[in-house]
Design brief:
The protein has one domain. The protein is built from eight helices and two strands; from the N terminus they run H-H-H-H-E-H-H-H-E-H.
Length: about 230
């Protein structure tokens, strides 16, 4: 291998590890902002939703508020909407009863929200698992270069050996220093994901119980009239 290229291996490994470290801390900031924003949005929506006097008002809140719970509720209301337009009962979409459609919509929306929250987790897991080995590779390569240099110089004194090998060992230390925060950040957000998923599942269960009171149906025209009234009032 070209000598100049060979000498770039260890610095390249170190720069790669620095990049991994920057990615880990950037994901910490991005994901923290995502979870804090979602928590605030869900708290606001939950207060408005459960304070609503009827399902029509709750449906209006679901269409107006941001956040994962609002989107789950909105998908549930979409499954409950009933209108008076003629339907071809031979179509497969109309052979599913509203209870099953509601359960499917809620489940699919929860899965979408989970996938959104899972974004970046694979990167953190990859950094945490590979960074030590990348650092070890840099160390092994650095030691090989050091031994070659010693062979060329013909001197094996402590001063000659300690410097290059000590420099090579830095790569392993950096790899571990990059991996540990990545693993901790991954585990932290894994815990947050489980809590958020449980919160969404609980809301979906409560929504399903609430929908049973209206026989899993809500009138499309009533929603339209409600939205018109809200706009006129504002």
């Amino acid at each position: 291998m070209n000598e100049s290229l060979s000498s770039m291996i260890v610095p390249g490994v170190l720069w790669a590890l620095v990049l991994f470290s920057v990615m880990s801390w950037a994901l910490l900031l991005i994901k923290s902002s995502q979870y804090l924003r979602q928590k605030s949005q869900n708290n606001q929506f939950s207060k408005a939703f459960w304070a609503a006097p009827d399902l029509l008002t709750a449906a209006e809140h679901a269409s107006q508020y941001p956040g994962s719970l609002a989107r789950i509720a909105n998908s549930g209301f979409e499954a409950m909407i009933v209108d008076d337009t003629p339907r071809n009962t031979q179509q497969l979409a109309h052979t599913i009863n509203r209870s099953d459609r509601l359960e499917r919509n809620l489940r699919q929306q929860i899965q979408k929200e989970r996938r959104s929250l899972e974004s970046g987790q694979a990167i953190l897991a990859s950094i945490g698992s590979t960074a030590p080995f990348i650092g070890l590779f840099g160390t092994v390569w650095g030691i090989m270069e050091a031994l070659q240099s010693i062979g060329v110089s013909g001197s094996a004194s402590l001063e000659t050996v300690a410097g290059p090998i000590g420099h090579a060992l830095i790569a392993t230390g950096v790899g571990i220093a990059v991996a540990v925060p990545a693993v901790l950040i991954y585990n932290f957000f894994l815990r947050r994901l489980k809590l958020a998923s449980a919160n969404m599942d609980d809301f979906a269960h409560d929504f399903d119980a609430l929908a049973q009171r209206s026989a899993f149906a809500i009138d499309r025209q009533a929603i339209s009239n409600k939205r018109t009234a809200v706009r006129e009032a504002s």
